[in-house]
User: What shape does this take?
Amino acid sequence: MSADLISLFTATFVTFFVLIDALGVAPVFATLSAEGTPAWRRRMAVKSIFVATVILFLFAFGGAWLMDAMHISIDAFRAAGGVLLFLIALDMVFEKRTERREHRAEGVLEERQNHQEPDDISVFPMGIPMIAGPGSIATAMFYMSDASNWMEKGVVLAAIGLNLLLTLIVFLLAGPLVRLLGASVAGAMTRILGVVLAALSIQLLIDGIKGAFNLG
Assistant: This one.
């Protein structure tokens, strides 16, 4: 693998690792699946990742067609993606994203109080928007649209796929992992990842502006 492909894989992997934030989502999954049997929790973990994979890959392959149909340039999309990711990064640093996840989890738990059997949480809220959220969907579209050949597209898909596989492992170990890390450590990890995402988003914005105005 060439240095350019390794660099592309690393950038894509780090970006999606921060966006999906498996360690930050794990407490939500552990909470929502606490009432189910071990077999049911495993089924929800696998199904959540499957749903997110279908959504991300669908937008990854259909994103270029959508951009062409709407006459959106790659530089405009890159700049817009940078702004979107920066807003997500701010949420992560100031823990607003975590608060929304916890509020969403509480809402789902309240709806389930009158049901004897646990509801299916794989599509909502786990598949969407916990894993395949607006940021990860837009970023999948960007990276695939920016890839110039099928080798680069394969590298992008491999980086996304590896992140989804890691998220599945984290979900399967969610209960023990949350107890091991604790709320404070998970919160600190989310803030650190938010700072990394902020730096990546600013670079995307700079690249988009430079490309749009031919600044070299």
Remarks:
- The radius of gyration is 18 Å.
- The chain is about 85% helix and 0% strand.
- The chain has a mean pLDDT of 83.
